[in-house]
Task: structure prediction
Amino acid sequence: MTHGSGPGPHIPSFILLILLLMVLKAGAGGYETCPSVHPDMLNVHLVAHTHNDVGWLKTVDQYFCQVSLPLFPGNVRNILNSVVRALLVNPTRRFTYAEMAFFSRWWKLQNKEMRKIVQDLVHQGRLEFANGGWVMNDEATTHYGAIVDQMTLGLNFLENTFGKVGRPHVAWQIDPFGHSREQASLFAQMGFDGIFLGRVDYQDKNIRKRIHQMEQMWRGSDSLPPPTADLFTCILPNVYEPPRGFCWDILCSDPTVVEENGTSVYNADMVVAQFLRIAADQASHYRTRNIIMTMGSDFHFGEAERWFKNLDKLIQLVNAQQQAKGSRVHVLYSTPACYLQELNKANLTWWVKQDDFFPYADAPHEFWTGYFSSRPALKRYERLSYNFLQVCNQLEALAGHAANAGPFGSGNSGPLREAMAVLQHHDAVSGTARQLVTDDYARQLSKGWGHCEVLLSNALARLSGAKHKLTFCHGLNVSVCPLSQGAAHFQVLVYNPLGHQVNWMVRLPVSEGHFVVLDPNGQAVQSEVVKYPVVDCVKHPPELLFRASAPPLGFNSYSVTKAPVKKPQPGSTTSSPQESQSSVLVIENEHIRVAFDNHTGILKEIENRDQKLVLRVQQTFFWYNASRKSGAYVFAPEQLNPLPISFSPEIHLVKTALVQEVHQKFSDWCSQVVRLYPGQRHLELEWTVGPIPLDDFGKEIISRFDTELKTHGLFYTDSNGREILERRRDYRPTWNLKRTEPVAGNYYPVNSRIYITDGNMQLTVLTDRSQGGSSLRDGSLELMVHRRLNSDDQKGLDEPLMETGPDKQGLCVRGKHLVLLDGTQTAAAGHRLLAEKVVLAPQVVFYTSGDSLGRSGGIPRRKFSALHQELPPAVRLLTLALWGPRKLLLRLEHQFAVGEGSLSSPVTLDLRDLFSTFTITHLQETTLAANQPRDRVSRLQWTLKTGPVLRTLNFSMDSAAITLQPMEIRTFLASIKWKRSPRAWDTALRARAPSPKGWVNSCLSILLLLL
Ligand SMILES: [Zn+2]
Result:
C-alpha cells in the first residue's frame, strides 16, 4: 500500500478566500450552508461518509469500543474522533453521518469544548446528519410501528442536541437489501425531502441507467393524497462505495495520490484522467449537471486524515484542469442534502414510481430473499418486544411517574426502546448478523424487558390500588409457567393495549386437576383443563383454557383456584385427546367449518358459514433443497419443486367445549395444530418446525396452501404491515424482468399478511412475524417458516445459517398462521382488524396474594380502562408514550386504505375527554417522528410527469376533534394533567358503554417463540 508522501493540502489562495467566505456565509445548517456549484459545468459532489452497522460481524459494543478482532475492523469511537479532527484541518471538508445509536453514545463521552466544536461543525453544514434514525433500518422484515419508533428516537436525539440545524433533510438507506414502499411513505411523512438508495436489483438498475431514471419521485401510498407520501428518490451509482481506484481508507489498497512529478510513484495525472472518465460515464446515466460520489464504506474513516488528504488533492487537481486544460468538471465536498438541492434547482420534470424495490438481486442467481425468513425465532422475539414496548409505553403514560419510581423499584421504558431501535438495523431483525451478534441482540431485548417489567409492576400497582409483585411467564408458548403450574390459587391480569375491547382464549400450563376461574365481578367463567398429545419438540403439560375479555386500554383480573376435590366443578371440565374414529374429520364452530382428508389427515376444505363460501384448500409442509448459494441473505433452491415432508401426517383430534383441534405430526421435526375456538372467525395453524436435520443439503421449510382459485399470476403482500401491494409472478411493474430464478425471484417480504383472490373469494394468511412468501402457481400461496443452511452465501457474513440452539441440536421454532376465507369485497375488515390483534396482543401477567406488598387502601381494582369509550374500529392507537414532564406522545392512525369497504371512510374523534387517567390541556401536531411542528414543515417541491399535485394540506387544530383519512397517521404532543383520584377513573369506567360489537370478537392466545 502506498501512502501519500506529498505535502499537506495545497489549495490556491484565491480558492481559500472563496472557501472562507463560504464558511462565513454558513451559519444556519441545512440547505443554506451548501457549497456553490458551477451551473455551466459538471459538478461532482463528493460525499465523505462511513457506514457503521449497528451490529453485524461484531456486536454493537465491539464496534463502538476498542475491541479489535483482526478479521473484522470497525471502531466507531475512533472513527468519530478522527473525523472531527480532520474536519478542523480544512474548512471545506464535509462529512455525512447516519447512525444515532453510535453518535449519541459518542456524544455522551465528549466534554464541553468538544461538544461546542461539533455544534459549530453542524451549524456550518460541515458535519451533516442524514437519515438520523437510531439505525439504518431494514425495510423487508420491519413493522412500520417499529420503524416509526426507531426514527423518532434518533431524530429527537438530534433535535434535542442540535436543534433545527441538526435536522436531516434526506433519508440515507444505502445498504438495506431492497426497499419498501411503506418506508418511502413514512419518510415523506417525517418531512424528508428525499431518499438515497444503494442496492437496487441489477437488471432494474441497468435499465434505469439506460433510460435516465436513476432519480425520480416515489409515491409511497395509494391512499394518502399527493404529495403527502411522495419522496424524491436517488439511486446511488456504486451502492455506497467510492469509484473503483478511489478508495483511500486504511482498509483499502488503492494507491494514494502522489503529486511529486518525476518520482517513480507519481500518479496524479493518471488519477485525474481516470476520475474524469468515471465522472463522464456516470453523468451519462443521470439527468442534471450534478452527480454524486460516495467516498467511504463500511467502518471507513478510522484514519480520516488519510481519506480527506487524498480527497483534498483530488479536488485541487481536477479543478485545476479547468484553468489548465479547459475542463468542464468541478469537484466539491458536498453532502446528500446539498446534492438533492441541486437536483431540485434543476427544475426538471420527473417520472413517478408507485411500486417498490423488492425483491433485490445483485446477480442472476443471487436473490436476497432468504433473509425475509432467516432466524425466525429472533424475528418473533422482535415482534413480541414491539408488543411489550407498547404496553410499557402506555402504562408509563397512564400511571405517570408512579410507573418510574414505585414500590418495586425504578421502572424504565428507555432500555427496551433503545434495544428495539437497535433490532431494526438492517443486519439485526433481518437475521443477517453472525450468531454471536444475534445472541447479543436477544440479550439487549431481554435486558429491556426486565426494566419494563418493573415499570409494569409499579404502574399496575398504581392503577389497581394493590401492590402485587407481578410474575411474567416468558415460556407460555412452550407451556412453561412455574407459577400457574405450581400455585393452587393465583390471579391472571390481562392488559389490553388496543383501543378496542378484546375477547380471547387464555391458555395456561397447569398441574393435573380441576380449576375454578372467576371474572372481575366474581362470576364463574367456563373453563377446562385439556391434555394434549405430544407431537413435537416440546413437552405438553395439561393446559387450563378459559375465555377472557379486557376493556380498551385496560385490564381485567381473573382469579384461578385449584379445586380441592377431584370432582369436576361447575363450568370446569377435563378433556383428553380423542383419536379420530369418525369417518369425517372435521372441526367447526358457528362461523367456520374445516374438513380434513380422512385418509391423509391433511387440511382439504374451509367453509365460511356466515358468507356461505366454501373453498378446497390443501395445506401441508415442504422443503426446498438449498443450493450452496443459499445463505443468511440469499435464497437459491437447488431444484424448483420443493419436497413434501409428508402427505400423511399422524393425526390426533381434540374436541372439547372450548376448543377443537387437529394435531398433525408430519415428521419428528415438523408438526402442526389446526385450531378453532368458539366464536372465532379465523382458523389458527400453529406450526412447530425444528430441529431441521442437516445432511448434504440445507433445508428451507415452507407451509403451502393450494386452492383452485383462478388467480392469474396475482397475489398480494403487505408493505411493512401496512398498505397492500399487488404482486404478479415473473413480473416487475416498472421494467421487463428477465427471469433467472423462478422460485427465489418471486419471493416477497410478508410482514403481516399475504393473500390470493379470484375476485369473488379471498384466502388471507396472517403471520406473527416477518416471513418470505410467494404464489408460484395459480391458486397457491406459500410462506417460508424456517431455514437451516450448510454454507455461507458470500455476502460478507462468512458463517452458515446453522442456528444450533441452546442444546446444539438445531433450533425448534413455533409460530402461527391465521387463515381467513372471505368474500373479496369484505375481506379487508377481517384481516385489518385481526392483524392489529396479532401485533398488539394482550399482555398476561400473574400474581398471588402472598406476593403483595400490602394494599394502598380499599379493595384492589380488578378491572380498569383508560378510555372513556372505545376507539372507532378503523382507528388504531399507534403510540401512547411519556414525552416529558406532563407531556405525552400520541399517534392515532386510520388502519384502512381507500377502497377497503365501509371502514375506509374518514373518521372524526374528539380527544378532549377520551382518556380517563389524564386530561389533555394542549395539543400540538407534529410530523410523524415528532421532531418538528407539522405546520412548519416545508418540503422541496418537484414537477412530475403525472401532472401538478394539488397541495391541499389543510388541517385544522382549532379543536380537539381530529379527522383521520384512510391510511393517515396523525402525531401529537399532548400537554396533560393526570387525574390523581382513582375515583375519577372509576366514573369513567362506569360511564363507558359495553361493547357488544361483533368485530371485537377474537381469540388470540399467546403466541411465543421457542428460543
Ligand atoms: Zn450495513
Remarks:
- Residues 1-28, 988-1011 have pLDDT under 50 and may be disordered.
- The longest strand covers residues 613-626.
- The pocket of zinc ion is lined by residues 51, 53, 175, 426 (CB under 6 Å).
- The longest helix spans residues 435-464.
